[in-house]
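hey can u check if this looks right to u? its 328 residues, i copy pasted from the old doc so theres a chance i mangled smth
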Amino acid sequence: ATILAATKQTVDCRRDSLEAEFYSLYGFRLRHRFGISSWQSIPLSLPSHVHSRCTVITGDLKKCFENIPLTGPDGLDLACSTHIAEAFGFRPGKDLYIPIDDSLTICGKAQFAYGTPPTFGRAGRYLCFPLALATSVVVQYSQTTIIGAGQYMLLQLLGIPMGGPPCSLFCDLYLDHYEYGLICRITAACSYHLPRAKYYAALLEHYYRYCDDVFALAPRSLCECLFNPMHPRDPESLTWLYPLLDAAGNTIMSLDQDLPEPNAEGTVEDHFLCMTIALGPTVGTTREVNYRPYNKRHSFTFGYPALTMWYSYTALSIKHSSLVGMLP
């Protein structure tokens, strides 16, 4: 878990830099990562309005944990190796160091460095992980889950190792592996079919995933465009996102989607994590975005858009007034 947490943070930094580079080249935004680690990421990034074609889409990637293969062309080992190599590639020449105390217990976050970092606090020593060793440790851990069943000891051959600290990290990096694959295909499409690339970039503009739960403010066509298991998994195709079927046609995962219908006022809403997210009735060509706690007995400790990210789609005047209001 310590290795994966450090490499994920580094990969996120690389994706952010690639996203900024893409925008400077093509003039429109293509998000380069969709996984979130907390519910706060949603209200921090929600736009104030979306196009009238958008609706609220929520879903669950069924069988995601138990059906992911550990090896093979869709294996977890390939996703892990690619993820770790991307992190080390973004920190060339550096190794990963994990601090430990005198009792050989991990006592801090792993960090990339050119040499052994200085000791501080409880950190008296460091474990050094070059690329090959870090990859080997993570892959071996993912493939050595032993389960007790009466007098037998069983080796898990299919599915993400459950119960351990890296469980959710394994799921996140596996799905991110395919999400980034689509991003690369959209980027490549900019050179031969720019309108199509722009369409898919807009489709994913407000798509988020928390572990195996997904949420989007997008047209209903998102589900057909990206989650149809019958679409071929061509290496250049933009019409698939996750490996829903393997080469033999067996199901790896599927999207259990929820597409709520508008109420009498034209508002459509649904629940995601601890929030209820609503799109108001169409006014002109837009719909207003709002959210509130799912549990009516609770309240959030901040108000929208007080903590909206500066590069979100909230109106500049609102962001400016929120920022001024927080200054002493």
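The longest helix spans residues 2-26.
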